[in-house]
Write a structure and sequence with these properties.
alpha/beta; globular; eight-stranded parallel sheet
Amino acid sequence: MDTIVWISGATEGIGLGLARNAPWPGARIINISRRAHPEYETVQVDLTDPAGWQGVRDSFRRELAGFSGRAIFIHNAYYSNAVGLVGRVDQSEYQKSLLANVAAPLALGEAFIREFPEGAEGGLALMSSGSAIVPLEGLASYCAAKVAAEHWVEVVQRELASRGAAAPWAVAVRPGAIDTAPARASAQLDPSVYPRAGAVAKSKRLDIDTAGKRIWAELPPKPGVAVLAWEVAPEGADARFGGRTRLVPEEEWRAAVAG
C-alpha cells in the first residue's frame, strides 16, 4: 500500500524521530518546515505567518486527489521563542507563538480532513503535552495551545463518528519528556523569566528515536482513545475526557520499541 506521511517540524527533535522511524518501508515522508531537510521532501512554510499555510493546504490537495493508500499527518512543529512570563516575553514573539502553536495546528488539521479522500486509510495526530492539564508558569501560550489541540481532537472525533466516517482517525499525543533542542534551550533561561528552567535542566528526557518508535507503535489509536500519554497525570486532571486518555504502561511501550 502506498503511504504518505506529512510531519511538521521533521528537521529535528520528535519530528525527526518520527520521520526516520516510520514503520512502513518506502513510505513517502514530507517535511513541513521553514528549513528543507536533506533527505525528505519539504514543504517550506513559516507557521508564524498564516499566509504561508496555503502551501501546506495545496500539498494536501495535490497529493490526496484520487489517492487510495495510507495518508497520515502529524503536526509536531513548535515555535519556541516565546517561553517566559506573560508580559515579559517580547510581544511580537508572543504573537508568533500564538499563531504557530495555537492556530496553525487547528487550521492545518482542518485542511487535512477536508482533503482526505474517501476510501483511503490513515488519520492525523496533533502533538500535545502534559502541559494541557498542568498549568506551568512561563508556558501560558504553550499550555493554551495544547488544551486547544486536545479539545479540538475530541470534537473532531465526535463529528467523524456522527457522520459514520471510518477514516480519518484523529488523536492527540502527549509524548512525555523528550530530549529536544527547545527543551535544552529552555533549561538555560533566566529563572526570573522562566521559573521552570531549573526543573527542566534536571529532568530525565528520552531520546527522539525511542520517542518516535513508541508513538508509531500506538498509531492508529485504539477505538475511543482521544489522547495518548506516556506520563501519569495528576488525579482528576483528565476528567473532561471521560476515560478516553490511554496511558501507555512503560513495560508495554518498551516491548513495542524493542520488537
